[in-house]
Amino acid sequence: MKKLIVLGMGVCVALAFSSCKSSESAYKKAYEKAKQQELAEPQATTSADDVAPVVSAPTEARVVESSNAGVRQEKVTVVSGTSGLKDYSVVCGSFGVKANAENLKDYLDKQGYDAIVVFNADAAMYRVIVNTFADRASAANARDAFKAKYPNRKDFQGAWLLYRIN
Question: For residue 149, how many C-alpha atoms fall within 13 Å in the half-sphere facing its CB?
Answer without folding.
Answer: 14
